[in-house]
Design a protein that fits this description.
globular; 157 residues; single chain; 25% helix; alpha+beta
């Protein structure tokens, strides 16, 4: 068995960290819930809620289709939906609302009310629904207080 010194192990860890940082830097920036939306080039768009919102659709690197819902009046992201072979990084999509989601999910787990294949987590400011199994994931996350008049939860598909 070959051994390595702590210096060699530290260098290897630093290299792996630098490599992973480069891969994140290469990914296009996306807005999180509540942030000002940035429409990626070539993204498909459609209108919802009688013109109160628009949906920008794109496919991420894992092949998952992500729909970003934007309030027309505010220009901010009010919701996300996703469907595909991999779960997106929900914490990234939630941005500053991730802490609210984690706290509500921990409370559900402590109460024994969390599910294996599907969950609905209602935080103080954000609602997140996830479902699926290997290679078939779907979900949605939204800010109930930010939904403009004319856009309902049913529009978030």
């Amino acid at each position: 068995m070959k051994t390595c010194s702590l210096t060699q192990a530290g260098r290897a860890a630093a290299f792996a960290c630098a490599l992973s940082c480069l891969s994140f830097a290469a990914a296009p920036a996306r807005a999180a819930l509540g942030d000002t939306a940035a429409v990626p080039a070539g993204a498909a768009q459609r209108v919802v809620g009688g013109g109160a919102g628009r949906v920008v659709s794109y496919v991420d690197d894992d092949g998952t289709t992500i729909n970003e819902y934007v309030g027309i009046a505010t220009g901010t992201v009010i919701a996300y939906t996703w469907q595909g072979p991999a779960q997106p990084n929900v914490e990234t999509l939630l941005g500053r609302y991730a802490v609210d989601w984690r706290n509500a999910a921990a409370a559900l787990h402590a109460a024994g009310r969390d599910g294996l294949h599907a969950a609905r987590v209602e935080g103080a400011q954000v609602v997140v629904e996830t479902a699926g199994h290997m290679r078939a994931y779907m979900g949605r996350a939204w800010l109930p207080a930010a939904l403009p008049a004319g856009v309902s939860v049913g529009d978030l598909q």
